[in-house]
Amino acid sequence: QVRLVESGGGLVQAGGSLRLSCAASGRTFSSVPMRWFRQAPGKEREFVASITWSGGRTNYADSVKGRFTISRDNSKNTAFLQMTSLKPEDTAIYYCNVGHSVVPSDYIYWGQGTQVTVSS
Fold first, then answer.
1. Which of 97, 87, 95 is nearest to 117 (CA)?
2. Sign of torsion over alpha carbons 49, 4, 73, 87
3. Three-state secondary structure call for residue 90
4. Are 24 and 79 spatial neighbours (Cβ–Cβ below 8 Å)?
5. How many whole angstroms separate alpha carbon 28 and alpha carbon 18?
6. Residue 40 CB: number of other CB atoms within 10 A?
7. Which phi and psi (to 5°) does residue 41 adopt?
8. Per-residue confidence band for 18, with pLDDT thresholds at 50, 70 and 90
9. What is the pLDDT of residues 61-72, one digit of tens each?
């Protein structure tokens, strides 16, 4: 069973920055991408960003390109999401996961997420 613990969320004004962390445990994550998703109130969970095991390839949702940066520390099975130029529409609960799919429903295990609130 995979255990995922997200942290680093909070309340920030528009234009501000936050850095989220995700600690994964419970299995071997070798060669597996890590991903961030988010779910805004009343909306479905959506893909935000992903990073390959080596860190050599990243991918972002169009809505966050140029503002968010994903990274990882494989020695600690941890992923990070540096968020800058935050907008009110970035308000959501942010979740991480480990796997090959960008479809949230393909994942069985989720952490509790971390709340990000951006005020205008």
1. 87
2. positive
3. helix
4. yes
5. 28
6. 14
7. -55, 130
8. very high
9. 999 999 999 999
